[in-house]
Each structure stands twice: as structure tokens, then as C-alpha cells.
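[[Per-residue structure]]
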Amino acid sequence: MDAKGIVLTNNHVVDDADKITVRLNDGREFPGKVVGTDPKSDVAVVRIEASNLRAVRLGNSDALRVGEWVEAIGSPFGQQLEHTVTAGIISAKGRSSVGLADYEDFLQTDAAINRATAAVRS
């Protein structure tokens, strides 16, 4: 399946960025344009002009069960830790009242996730 240039990332990666560069696993780099953000849930969508991009298959959170393994993929702290994969276990579903957003139905995991740096800031 072709990803059609859509990149899912964290809002904190692109927030206040003057320039966004998306670097793919094969080393190619593309300028990116933010097409949507949700700061409260720390999610952002970026579009790049590229073709033949392989889409990542996302899981179905409705079908997820407590005790299942999950993975997080990213590049925390920039190029020094590119292509980092971490794993964890889902310890709870439907977490609410954590004060992050008006809509809350979060998954809780023990996967180690660090804030990433992938956008150029000035």
C-alpha cells in the first residue's frame, strides 16, 4: 500500500518549526508541510511530495487487549538515535481524567518513549 506522502508524527516535533525535513529510512530527504496537528494528544500529520512510499500498518486500538505487546518507532534526539524501536505492554485501555484533552480514551503502555527532534527550529 502506498502512503501517498502522508507522514504521522508527534506535534512536539513540528510545533513552531520554520522548516520541516522528513528523512526516510533509505536516506532520502524531502521538505514537509504540516497539514494537521492536535497539540493536546501530541499528534501531527505532515505531507511530502514523494511516490512509492510503503505505508506502515497501524493496529486497531479497539481490538487491542490489555497484556498485548506494542512498539513505538522514532528518532529521539535526532540523527544520533535514528530508527529507534522500543516495545512495551498495554497495561490499561480507556484511561480518562488525566487532563490531557477534552476527549480522553487513552491506552497506557510501559514502552519507553522519548521526545523526538526531527524538525529544524530557528
In short: The CA atoms of residues 92 and 106 lie 8 Å apart. Residues 117-122 have pLDDT under 50 and may be disordered. The chain has one helix and eight strands. Residues 11-14 form the longest helix (4 residues).
